[in-house]
Amino acid sequence: MFKHAVVRLPHTNFASGLTTAVWREKPDYELLCRQHRQYIDALRMLGLDVLVLDPEPDFPDAYFVEDTAVMLPSSAVITRPGAPSRAGETEKIMPALRRFRRLVQVRPPGLLDGGDVMQVETHFFIGLSNRTNQAGAQQLGAEAETQGFTWSTEPVVVDLHLKTGINYVGKNTVLCFAQYQDRPEYQHLAKIIVPADEAPAANTLLVNDALLMPAGFPKTRQRLDALDMPIYELDMSEAAKMDGGLSCMSLRF
Ligand code: CIR
Question: Ligand 1 centroid to 243 CA: how many Å?
Answer without folding.
Answer: 6
